[in-house]
Amino acid sequence: MKRPVKRILIGVAILAAAAAAALTWVMLRGNGQAVVYRTAIVQRGDLLVAISATGTVEPEEVIDVGAQIAGQILSFGKDTNGRTIDYGSTVDPGMVLARIDDLVYAADAAQAEAQVRSGRAALQRARADLGALQARLQQAERDWQRARKLGPSEALAEASFDAYRSAYETAVANLEVGRAAIQQAEAGVAQAEAALSKARRNLSYCTITSPVKGVIIDRRVNIGQTVVASLNAPSLFLIAKDLTRMQVWVAVNEADIGRIRPGQKVTFTVDAFPDEVFQGEVGKVRLNASMTQNVVTYTVEVITDNPGGRLLPYLTANVQFEMSRRNGVLMAPNSALRWTPTLEQVAPDAREAFAAASAGRRDKGKSGAASVGNGREAGIRSNVWVLDGDRVRPIPVKTGLTDGSMTEVEGPNLTEGMEIVVGVQPAGTAAAQETRNPFAPSFRPRGTGGLGR
């Protein structure tokens, strides 16, 4: 009989201990001791409000050197350093870039020169013929004058009289023919000279020269390659005129383009130098917008100096257009301004004011007034919360600019380095489970090799 009684007493004791533990856990939860707060530090620094976009680094002025005639590339010229023209070569105006096979064009030029000489010879002959015709006209005119004095008579037959007259008129007509032949020969010479000029110009096109001083950023032909010039001149070289000045072509969304203006300060980085920030300013906003998948973007030209040549053409740039800047201001995370505690989490002596403020915000919300509890608008008065034991206490602040993650704040009781609450530790994390239900089972995590708590 004693053993069953002993078992009953042991069971009652276990149940009592379990009930006491459960009661203690419920009381701790009711007092808020199970709440674990996440905090952040009030920082002092520079706050930049900017529009972010992506662009491409481009040379400020690019010259596309092409070929106006067809032919095979025979050789390349030399750059300013005496090396064969290639990518990155520095060239001066008039420097030979490449030579195209000129055999056909040289033959055309020689043929045109021969035609010019032939035309000039024809002109010289026509002038000589004109002199002969003038002499004949003078002889015919003298004969005609004598015939006119004699007239048809016994001394001069009528047929002879008519013959002298016809010879004179023929000589006058032949003189006009001679003069026309000279004009024709002169026109032939001009035509031949024009053909020669064209042939020589085509021959000169076989030597490709640099029109400007710059750097070759692209060579699009090789030796032995045949270029064909038809309606469009084939591109051979791409020359950047001045790499000490660069542009960044930035695609800006239509929602932000209204805040972009010429002269606006810009900062950007490139992946090639991730730790270096480059400076620039807006040059112009192009009006020819483009649409991709119903998204309208405008191209903004950003001008920047590149004295050391570190910026290379066609690098991808991560650009920020500076809207506003605050230097040396106190900043708090936006999550600290958005977070609002429950009434039980507030220190007892601050609950009445907190409840009144909450009721006022609810009334404004019902009347359609804008909510300012998130503190993201400049000049809005809000609160940040600091720890007071296991409760929190409000610190009134006035908000300023925000960059989307940090907001400028100021207040009489706000100091640099102050720890403020940004939220509550989510249930189920390691910190929150330190005060979990003592009767909840523990599990071993799979694959970690650790022991469940």
Q: Which features does this protein show?
A:
four-stranded antiparallel beta sheet; Elongation Factor Tu (Ef-tu), domain 3; OB fold (Dihydrolipoamide Acetyltransferase, E2P); 453 residues; 4 domains; six-stranded antiparallel β-barrel; alpha+beta; 5 helices
Could you walk me through the main structural features you see in this protein, from its secondary elements to its overall organization?
- With 453 residues, the chain is α+β, with helices and mostly antiparallel strands.
- The chain folds into four domains: 33-47 and 331-428, no CATH class; 49-59 and 241-326, Elongation Factor Tu (Ef-tu), domain 3 (Beta Barrel), CATH 2.40.30.170; 68-101 and 206-237, OB fold (Dihydrolipoamide Acetyltransferase, E2P) (Beta Barrel), CATH 2.40.50.100; 104-202.
- 32% of the residues lie in helices and 33% in strands.
- It has five helices and 20 strands.
- The chain has helices spanning 2-30, 103-150, 158-204, 334-338, 351-366, and strands at 37-41, 43-59, 62-66, 71-76, 90-91, 96-100, 207-209, 214-219, 226-227, 235-240, 245-253, 265-270, 273-285, 290-292, 295-305, 316-333, 381-388, 391-402, 406-410, 419-424.
- The strands form four sheets. A six-stranded antiparallel beta barrel has the order 2-11-15-13-12-16. A four-stranded antiparallel β-sheet has the order 3-10-8-5, with no helix packed on it.
- Strand 18 (391-402) and strand 19 (406-410) form a beta hairpin.
- The longest helix has 48 residues, at 103-150.
- The radius of gyration is 49 Å and the shape is rod-shaped.
- The protein starts with a helix and ends in a 29-residue tail after the last strand.
